[in-house]
Amino acid sequence: MSTIFCTGCGEVMPADAQFCAKCGKRNATLATETASTAATSSAAAAPVGPDVIPAPTERDYTPGAKSRITAGILGILLGGIGVHKFYLNKIGLGILYVVFCWTAIPAIIGLVEGIIYLTQDDVTFGRQQMVAVRRSSY
Fold this sequence. Notes:
This protein is mainly alpha-helical. It has 2 domains: 3-59, no CATH class; 68-129, no CATH class. The protein is built from 6 helices and 2 strands, in the order E-E-H-H-H-H-H-H. The protein has helices at residues 28-40, 68-78, 83-87, 91-99, 105-119, 122-129; strands at residues 3-5, 12-14. A two-stranded antiparallel ribbon has the order 1-2. The two termini are 33 Å apart.
């Protein structure tokens, strides 16, 4: 299996992956191949461009992708000690939540963030939290 470097974060990723597992950026080499293939195919093909997100397939599973539902539930239940921040790989904020957990302010913020995570769609959550997102089926 050949590997390439992500143009967004420099992480090593499989050459046939559509998105980077670390930053979620589209694989530029695969996108240009898809665009050239689409240009030669019929006009009824799906549009290809930087604003078009393809429908997920079994090949699109991204190891290390985060679930917005899991982050939301962790924020509501354990947000006072910053577990949702650790889950989203935001270690500095997680430590800050732990340091100030005795004030109950992180618990209130965690509750609000958990509700926000659960009400957002997957794409918005991934962009705001800068993580690859495991798509919800509901």
